[in-house]
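ARCHIVE RECORD
Type: protein–small molecule complex
Small molecule: zinc ion
Source of inputs: curated submission
Record status: active
Notes field left blank by submitter.
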Amino acid sequence: MFMDPHIHMSSRTTDDYQAMKNAGIRVVIEPAFWQGQSRNHVGSFDDYFLSLMGWERFRASQFGIRHYCTLGMNPKEVNRADLVEGVMSLLKRYLARESVLAVGEIGYDDMTDAEEHFFAMQLELAKTYNLPALVHLPHRDKHKGTQRTIDIIRDVGIADDWVLIDHNTEDTLPLVLDTGCWAGHSIYPDTKMDEGRMVELVKRYGPSRIVINSAADWGVSDPLKVPKTAQAMREAGIDDETIKMITWDNPVSFFTKSGRVTREELETPLVVDQRQQWEGNSILRGQMPQVDA
Ligand SMILES: [Zn+2]
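STRUCTURE (tokenized, with ligand):
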């Protein structure tokens, strides 16, 4: 049983859902992010947030996968002064919803003043709503970005273990493990972090507060990277208990801090009934529905 705690399913196909289910993925967390290009209207964020809590969640359920989301305004878009206030009010409305398990993904991109301001404000929102925060590290200038990220977390005063810092590398992981924050790793094809490098990190640092995800989106990425990395760890002689901690227990411990879902609920298999509809729409296009007994 695996969780992929960072994957953008809105950009993936039903084949992906089926393959993920077959590979043992039972729970996904979909963080709100940009859409490959900037949105130009507050209403676009509104409909996107609603789809993460609505249709996408339903779509996952039709393949036996529990879907939750995190909501936030990503740093690539906080530089749009004409949109941020509107999006912040949407967050204040939707962060109370049951399927939202954290604020995120938030953090730095170019490390501008606007990014810093709204990063801090959204960490404050996490405190207000008693939610954990999913923070991603910038892809450029990562070492400095990690230090500044940790500084902001300390300035705002959100507890370290309520923050998951994602997209770590060999360079940033020691900095994050020195704090009480959780450390996420996005396993991509050929770049940033791969299965072999992740195996080495686990051998070196152990499984405590370590999380892995696929961060799959519209780009070249692989929604099966969590089970594939588990397999690589098994082949490298890492014990089952360690693998289970990284691919299930750790993300479960982190996201159940929200108080909106229990470990027991996450571990209960979802009964599939593809005759179901969401706002009158089904995932089927005339096919025979799969209905679990
Ligand atoms: Zn992401």
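CURATOR ANNOTATION: The two ends are 20 Å apart (CA to CA).
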